């Protein structure tokens, strides 16, 4: 009797340890997984998602959040994935974010994406037109009759081509042979002679433009400037003038910096994503901004103040809490 009593106690103690142990392990691994939708791996969105996750994952014990990135088709894809709840965050161009929240362009049929929320903005993206030198393309109007990759469905560049080309007198259906390949394929299509030029709306420097301008087939970056570019800004005020520094691409034919149109990369999320998760991302990136900026040369221009510009959907309350605490936005 006494023996069995001791046995029972021992069994209970061991069981308690096992259950407790499982509970402790459960506690440690418990946590939230979040995904950031980015773009092609040779763009800037993909390393940007990686940089944001890196900041957050350093504090996984504090927040219990594990952050991962996914390579995707780009802005339009990311907005739709965030709205449907397939992803928690995404990177998207400010102009595309504007269209989604307003229910125009790609979202004309579906209407305003009311759950879309801004978190903060990032680097400037330049509408970049790369052309093979042997194709004789020195301005957008020279694209007539050429094979041009205007971007995959889901990408930001496809939307930019639809805004810009008609104002330069180019009918996408009739005047060019338009391809809709992914940006990551643009450089090899150009180098293999299967296209004459491609558009990519992207931060600089980036791997895709390096690859496209460093091959055996000589290539140049073509400006998008002058009266017609002014007309684009007048019609679509979400574009600004920007410059592509050619020091990033020493193998390109043209050596002078290139004037073009720009938008801003922004981090977006859904109103359904909890405030504490959004707060954690903003806090880790903003509190450690100088470290964050070392993670990609395209972030050189970033500052806390600039990262609150170009947000074309309402700011998520989790982000707003941080901005108010730091006085970046007044109560
Ligand atoms: N701006 C591009 C897009 O929205 C992506 C650029 C990048 O991946 O850096 O599709």
Give a verbal description of the structure.
With about 325 residues, the protein is of the alpha/beta class. It has two domains: about 5-125 and about 265-325, D-Maltodextrin-Binding Protein, domain 2; about 125-265, Periplasmic binding protein-like II (D-Maltodextrin-Binding Protein, domain 2). The protein is built from twelve helices and ten strands. Strands 1, 2, 3, 4, 5, 6, 7, 8, 9 and 10 form a ten-stranded mixed beta sheet that branches. Helix 2 packs across helix 10 and helix 10 crosses helix 12 (about 315-325). The structure holds glutamic acid (GLU). The site of glutamic acid (GLU) has 15 residues, from helix 6 and strand 7. Glutamic acid (GLU) binds next to helix 6 and strand 7.
Low-confidence stretches: 16-29
Q: What is the third-level CATH name, the topology of the largest domain?
A: D-Maltodextrin-Binding Protein, domain 2
Radius of gyration: 24 Å
Report, as a whole number of angstroms, the end-to-end distance: 71 Å
Query: What's the CATH C level of the largest domain?
Result: Alpha Beta
- Please, how many domains? 2
The count of helical stretches stands at 12
Note the main sheet: 10 strands, mixed
Count every beta strand, where a strand is a DSSP E run of 2 or more residues.
10
Shape: globular
Structural class: alpha/beta
- Which strand-content bin applies to the residues? 15-25%
Averaged pLDDT: 93
At the fourth CATH level, what is the homologous superfamily of the largest domain?
A: Periplasmic binding protein-like II
């Amino acid at each position: 009797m006494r023996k069995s009593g001791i046995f029972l106690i021992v069994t209970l103690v061991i069981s308690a340890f096992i259950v407790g142990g499982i509970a402790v392990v459960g506690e440690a691994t418990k946590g939230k997984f979040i995904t950031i939708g980015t773009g092609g791996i040779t763009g800037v969105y993909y390393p940007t998602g990686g940089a944001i996750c890196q900041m957050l994952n350093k504090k996984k014990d504090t927040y219990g959040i594990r952050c991962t990135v996914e390579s995707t088709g780009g802005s339009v894809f990311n907005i739709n994935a965030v709205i449907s709840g397939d992803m928690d965050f995404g990177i998207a161009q400010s102009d595309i974010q504007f269209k989604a929240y307003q229910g125009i362009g790609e979202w004309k049929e579906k209407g305003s994406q009311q759950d879309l929320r801004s978190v903060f903005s990032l680097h400037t993206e330049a509408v970049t037109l790369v052309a093979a030198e042997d194709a004789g393309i020195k301005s957008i109007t020279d694209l007539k009759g050429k094979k041009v990759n205007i971007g995959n469905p889901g990408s930001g560049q496809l939307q930019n081509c639809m805004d810009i080309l008609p104002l330069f007198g180019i009918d996408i259906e009739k005047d060019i042979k338009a391809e809709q390949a992914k940006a990551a394929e643009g450089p090899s299509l150009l180098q293999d002679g299967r296209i004459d030029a491609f558009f990519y709306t992207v931060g600089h420097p980036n791997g895709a433009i390096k690859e496209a301008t460093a091959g055996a087939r000589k290539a140049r970056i073509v400006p998008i400037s002058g009266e017609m570019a002014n007309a684009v800004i007048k019609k679509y005020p979400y574009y600004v003038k920007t410059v592509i520094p050619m020091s990033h691409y020493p193998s390109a034919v043209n050596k002078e910096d290139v004037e073009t149109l720009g938008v801003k990369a922004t981090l977006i999320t859904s109103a359904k994503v909890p405030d504490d998760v959004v707060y954690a991302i903003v806090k880790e990136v903003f509190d450690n901004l100088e470290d964050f900026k070392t993670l990609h040369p395209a972030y050189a221009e970033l500052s806390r103040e600039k990262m609150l510009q170009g947000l074309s959907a309402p700011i998520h309350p989790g982000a707003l809490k941080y901005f108010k605490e730091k006085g970046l936005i007044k109560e």
